[in-house]
Amino acid sequence: MTQPEWFNDFATWWDPAVGEDVARNVEPVDIDGHARVRVRCSSTAWGTLLRLIAPRLIVRINALPGTLARVEGLLVETGAATVPQIVVDRWADLMGEDLADQIAPYRLGHRGQELCAQAASADARDEGVRRGPEILERIRELIGEDCTVTRWTVTLRPVRVLIASSPQIRDRAAVETVLEQIWHDAVQVHGPTHLVALEHGDETMADRFVDAWAQSLDTADGALLISGPVASGMAGPDLAGPEPYSGRPDLCVSLIQHVDEALPLEEKARAAGVPVQRVQLDG
Asked: What is the pTM of this model?
């Protein structure tokens, strides 16, 4: 269907309403006849977050001055546009050998016009931003006249922690104590500017505790924390993806009641080479 004239001008209605971090990871795709905007999220965790904050975002969009944007709902899907294989194959030449192992491309945004990359550190991110113009020029030369990329964005790579939990665990306070330690360690090691994503199953009581705790946490210093269930296919090939910027988590924390328990999510993490930390809880 024909989109309203205001729809494609994201800078006037989407970006100011959702903020920089959401805008980098969630992209409007189209709008239907009921004024519902279909958005595409870069990961399952961002999709979960969007579903939670959608009502607030709709209010903000409709309250923006100087725009005709009117939205009645958000339809959330995951799966970002992939980076051209030729860019991946020639990344060291495009980025520079000194930064190629610190910054990696992971998706195309803004309808294929923005190449989004993730950096392992703030220093690498800042240097990547500085090199942006020359990187874009090299990409245009590499792809040729079919190149649609006109923008370059570098953000910090999220810290991903996979939570596997026994169905026998029902002690909410014990689970929250473990989560607080995970959060503290992540901020201490990576700093408060890294997004921390807690990913878990969608079957146990502890899974629900993780989501509730993440939503209630009052983070300080601009620290970012999101939580959501692992996508149905993520525990297989996505966990086993290449280091270090794929879907592979940084750590799997396994909450068990008995030392001989075998948790499917933990086993898949081990098979993919993800470090596993087992924490035994009483109940």
From this structure: 0.66
